[in-house]
């Protein structure tokens, strides 16, 4: 059983203590980023029910998104659990919760109460629709695909004449997690400078709205809705940009834009640059131009005679952006993935070895580290509570009353 003293010292965030109360993906991912960079992250899990990520994907989700964390299975709603939690946040630097808007305040945990116990505490509230706004939405549960739909992101994806597509995998969850991580760090820096804590209200749908480039500006200025199908499977602005199937049945995504790139591509595929179809100096071959079907036709003929790997290698040779559309089998042994160490292995707390994605990005002076896998339920209850001043008799009483719970369950079906 890992103790606080046994957590190795590494990363840029060693000495920072983070408490995360969240299930599934968005909130825990924010905590995971702290944990991979050396912070002591305590994952607060309710003693009733189960975090769905422990069993979805046969439990592999928690192995990738809960590693390095410690687990406290505490009933924060009960009066005694309430007191234990307040004592815990007195020792924390950052508290992040993900729930329906206002849920923690309904349980009696206002920001002001938490700051009474820890004036420097950074508090992050994550929810699907935010703490304020239309009451009918504030109280709604947030789920990646429904947020995907509400944010306008889903509308953009799919084919022009078809239904919108769900964007895989949990894109808005990860957007929100990244925003929460960055916002918590910004607030933590502010608290170090001023001695005063901070609180932020992160609506997951707004994180997804924020990450749609300038499309909303175009809408507000010209009332132009971006069409569904842009880039599905071909670009809606330029020829020579999009998905092309090759002789082996695999596909590539090619992108030719910019004067020099367009010239190299036109010439490579045996066409005359500087002609009426492909005038000198064009930034791309416009999709509505007379040269577009000729250009795409030449690319398709070349694809029909080469494998996807051969096509991508040829494009790399002349500096044109292109990639094979990779599946996991291709990625596992790809030389670039292997050379960068994109994959890594770590030991689980129940004696297995797991292979997954390494920490991102790579730090030169204070690298990230994976020191253990996902904790079992309540694995660190005794240690965490002892660290904040409870003795063994008090801890035993919490177990008897159901305030604490512990099992050997890690994940999987």
Average pLDDT figure:
94
Q: In which order are the strands of the major sheet placed?
A: 3-2-1-4-5-6
Number of strands: 11
Query: Which structural class do the helices and strands define?
Result: alpha/beta
Please give the radius of gyration in angstroms. 26 Å
Question: What's the N-to-C terminus distance?
Answer: 24 Å
Q: Output the number of helix runs.
A: 18
Q: What's the main sheet like?
A: 6 strands, parallel
* Spatial shape: elongated
Description:
The structure is a single chain. Helix content is 38%, strand content 13%. The longest helix has 24 residues, at 171-194. It starts with 16 loop residues before the first strand and ends in a 12-residue tail after the last helix. It has 18 helices and eleven strands. Strand 1, helix 1 (26-36) and strand 2 (40-45) form a beta-alpha-beta unit. The mean pLDDT is 94. Strands 3-2-1-4-5-6 form a six-stranded parallel beta sheet. A three-stranded antiparallel beta sheet has the order 7-8-9, covered by helices on one side. With 413 residues, the chain is α/β, with parallel strands linked by helices. The radius of gyration is 26 Å and the shape is elongated. Helix 1 packs across helix 9 (171-194) and helix 9 (171-194) crosses helix 10 (204-210).
Structure at a glance:
This protein is of the alpha/beta class and 413 residues long. It contains 18 helices and 11 strands. The two termini are 24 Å apart.
Write the layout of secondary structure elements.
Blueprint: E1 17-21, H1 26-36, E2 40-45, H2 60-65, E3 70-73, H3 79-89, E4 94-98, H4 103-106, H5 111-117, E5 122-127, H6 135-138, H7 144-150, H8 153-156, H9 171-194, E6 198-203, H10 204-210, H11 215-222, E7 241-245, E8 251-255, H12 259-268, H13 291-304, H14 308-317, E9 322-324, H15 328-332, H16 335-340, E10 343-347, E11 353-357, H17 381-387, H18 392-401
Parallel strand pairs: 1-2, 1-4, 2-3, 4-5, 5-6
Antiparallel strand pairs: 7-8, 8-9, 10-11
Helix pairs in contact: 1-9, 9-10
């Amino acid at each position: 059983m890992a103790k606080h003293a046994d957590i190795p010292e590494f990363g840029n965030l060693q000495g920072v203590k983070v408490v995360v109360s969240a299930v599934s993906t968005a909130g825990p991912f924010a905590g995971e980023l702290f944990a991979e960079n050396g912070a002591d992250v305590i994952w607060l899990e309710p003693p009733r029910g189960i975090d769905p990520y422990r069993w979805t994907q046969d439990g592999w989700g928690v192995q990738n998104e809960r590693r390095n964390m410690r687990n406290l299975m505490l009933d924060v709603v009960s009066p005694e659990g309430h007191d234990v939690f307040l004592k815990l946040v007195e020792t924390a630097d950052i508290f992040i919760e993900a729930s329906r808007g206002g849920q923690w305040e309904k349980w009696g945990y206002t920001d002001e109460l938490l700051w009474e116990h820890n004036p420097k505490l950074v508090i992050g509230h994550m929810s699907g629709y935010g703490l304020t706004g239309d009451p009918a939405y504030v109280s709604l549960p947030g789920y990646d695909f429904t947020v995907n739909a509400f944010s306008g992101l889903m509308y953009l994806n799919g084919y022009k004449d078809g239904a919108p597509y769900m964007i895989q995998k949990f894109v808005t969850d990860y957007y929100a997690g990244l925003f929460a991580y960055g916002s918590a760090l910004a607030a933590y820096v502010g608290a170090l400078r001023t001695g005063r804590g901070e609180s932020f209200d992160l609506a997951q749908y707004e994180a997804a709205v924020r990450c749609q480039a300038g499309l909303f500006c175009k809408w507000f200025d010209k009332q132009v809705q971006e069409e569904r199908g842009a880039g599905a499977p071909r670009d809606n602005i330029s020829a020579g940009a999009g998905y092309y199937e090759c002789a082996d049945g695999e596909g590539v995504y090619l992108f030719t834009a910019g004067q020099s790139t367009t010239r190299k591509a036109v010439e490579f595929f045996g066409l005359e640059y500087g002609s009426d179809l492909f005038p000198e100096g064009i930034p791309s071959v416009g999709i509505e131009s007379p040269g577009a079907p000729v250009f795409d036709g030449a690319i398709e003929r070349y694809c029909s005679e080469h494998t996807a790997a051969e096509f991508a290698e040829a494009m790399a040779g002349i500096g044109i952006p292109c990639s094979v559309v990779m599946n996991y089998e291709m990625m596992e042994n790809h030389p670039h993935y292997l050379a960068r160490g994109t994959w890594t292995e770590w030991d689980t707390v129940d004696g297995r070895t797991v292979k997954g994605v390494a920490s991102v990005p790579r730090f030169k002076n204070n690298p990230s580290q994976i020191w253990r896998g996902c904790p079992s339920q309540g694995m660190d209850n005794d240690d965490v509570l002892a660290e904040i001043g409870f003795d063994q008799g008090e801890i035993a009483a919490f177990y008897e009353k159901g305030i604490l719970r512990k099992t050997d369950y890690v994940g999987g079906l």
